[in-house]
Amino acid sequence: xxxxxxxxxxxxxxxxxxxxxxxxxxxxxxxxxxxxxxxxxxxxxxxxxxxxxxxxxxxxxxxxxxxxxxxxxxxxxxxxxxxxxxxxxxxxxxxxxxxxxxxxxxxxxxxxxxxxxxxxxxxxxxxxxxxxxxxxxxxxxxxxxxxxxxxxxxxxxxxxxxxxxxxxxxxxxxxxxxxxxxxxxxxxxxxxxxxxxxxxxxxxxxxxxxxxxxxxxxxxxxxxxxxxxxxxxxxxxxxxxxxxxxxxxxxxxxxxxxxxxxxxxxxxxxxxxxxxxxxxxxxxxxxxxxxxxxxxxxxxxxxxxxxxxxxxxxxxxxx
Length: 319
Hints:
By secondary structure, the chain is of the alpha/beta class. It has helices spanning 12-18, 85-94, 155-168, 197-205, 215-224, 250-259, 261-280, 304-310, and strands spanning 6-10, 37-42, 55-59, 65-70, 99-108, 118-119, 123-127, 175-176, 185-189, 210-212, 228-237. Helix 2 packs across helix 5 and helix 3 (155-168) crosses helix 7 (261-280).
């Protein structure tokens, strides 16, 4: 059996789209995607520790496989600041993944992005607070690299996914993407608390359209690991910027997620097989080689320990 080409990262609620038969979730029956078959769980120990969950190998109807990691753990027991992004991305690279399609609930910072709408962002504002490990380099390893991050998402992958999402959305829901010189911008905050009203209004002034707590360091680490990365977002609320409304609550987020379950199911069903086929046919460019000129430390200065560790994700450079 060939390795999975696509990695999927989402929360434990999203996992029920894929594995409705699992018994250890409290959200019974939420998000079912009956067309995927559970093949096996792979326990991975990376040089950066264990990922948030086992890597779950799932089969599409065609037999092609995808690899899933529950970002916040199987029981949603890991806060955004505690997610081991290094291990999650490294584990997906280790099992053969070439590109990641990540899913995230987001708050809307724009009136036109309604709860239930889908968004595929192309830009990020990083408002995390250096609590999270956001690079595979440095960290007393003696190897420095500066990955290009001007385009935080893989443009070709996101552009391929967008029309697939749009064509399956029911009437009344919209897909929001960048257009012309107008970016679709996500601001990533530290959390786990939601924004203050002042913060939410500031993010709007900065040009952000949506907000979440998870895209950083995921997108940065995927870039360093030479993996394609795209994010499909679902708006659950209007964050805290509206002056005439109460700020967002967890109850509101869960309610909208539940309402939007079927829409997310159809999106996933429509996207994953097409992305797999496109990657197999080289219609979406590989990211291999993208870090070639980012590593600035001379090879003769690599230590044995750094080569052993970094070869896990970049074997071509650290043999």
